[in-house]
TrEMBL record:
Organism: Polarella glacialis
UniProt name for this protein: Uncharacterized protein
Source organism superkingdom: Eukaryota
Region Disordered, annotated ranges: 61-94
Length: 294
């Protein structure tokens, strides 16, 4: 546009001639008239061209400013949206963290309950120890038939018994030795039988020969049946090795006595001899284990 304006103004400044590219050949009069007319048209055209150029430039500038304004507004709006999104994200994260903290804080402490499940409380049938297997002779590590049943009843009330029962359908001495027998007598030096007779150790009258893999329910049933068939009272004192001996003595740091120290006392030989004048010995057979395979 500016180039066209310069050419037009240059044309107005020169004298028209036949060689002029902008004016056709003519006479001098015609040339003067044509020159005047051409100048007027050229001036008007140049003015119009300049006005158009200025208008276009102004419009372009206006559009550019408008676009810049729109872009600026768009950028500003975008920044506001980003800020709002960041604030929402921060609020959500804070709320989530608070919820997690609240949930964690509100959760009950089950550690004590878990310990109770893992470590059943000592039953009432086992009072505080008074005697020690290292001080009392083996033939006096007896317990009555009624006490035998009472102790098994306490074992049945624990989750350890229930778990073994559910696992294989029956419970043997291996199942309750570590989790119940040793747990309830640990660091006392006193086996189950001595714990159940704090007033006076009970001399054995009946030696029970059995195996650790037996079904304890069947063992109890067989023992009760034997007493019934032989008219023996439930107060009859039996010697049942798992409950007569002190079981946790071999554990590190335990007060003892150890199993080896108790075997040095020849408990089985001395008990068999002592029960000769009593009810002697009974061998218990169950369907889960063969006593002579022990």
């Amino acid at each position: 546009l500016w180039l066209e304006r310069d050419l037009l103004l240059q044309c107005l400044a020169c004298s028209p001639s036949r060689d002029c590219a902008f004016v056709p050949s003519c006479s001098e009069a015609e040339s003067a008239a044509a020159t005047a007319t051409t100048r007027a048209k050229a001036t008007a055209r140049a003015a119009a061209t300049i006005t158009t150029a200025i208008t276009i430039t102004a419009t372009a500038t206006s559009n550019s400013n408008s676009n810049n304004s729109i872009n600026s507004n768009s950028n500003s709006h975008s920044k506001q949206q980003q800020q709002q999104q960041q604030q929402q994200a921060t609020t959500t994260a804070t709320t989530t963290a608070t919820a997690v903290t609240t949930t964690t804080t509100a959760m009950p402490d089950c550690s004590s309950a878990a310990r109770d499940v893992e470590s059943p409380a000592v039953p009432q049938c086992l009072p505080a120890p008074r005697w020690s297997n290292s001080k009392v002779p083996p033939q006096c590590w007896g317990m009555s038939v009624a006490q035998f049943s009472e102790f098994l009843c306490s074992c049945r009330e624990t989750h350890i018994w229930a778990a073994a029962k559910e696992s294989k359908g029956y419970v043997n001495l291996y199942d309750i030795d570590a989790g119940l027998v040793k747990l309830w007598t640990r660091n006392t030096g006193s086996g189950v039988a001595l714990r159940m007779n704090p007033q006076k150790p009970l001399p054995a009258e009946l030696m029970v020969s059995h195996c650790w893999g037996e079904d304890l329910d069947q063992c109890e049933e067989a023992l009760l049946d034997f007493c019934g068939r032989h008219a023996l009272p439930l107060t009859r004192a039996v010697w049942f090795c798992a409950f007569a001996q002190y079981q946790p003595g071999d554990e590190p740091g335990d007060v003892g006595p150890t199993i080896a120290e108790q075997l040095q006392l020849d408990p089985f030989g001395s008990v068999i001899k002592s029960t000769k004048s009593g009810s002697g010995m009974v061998v218990v057979h169950t369907s889960c284990a063969k006593v002579y395979d022990r």
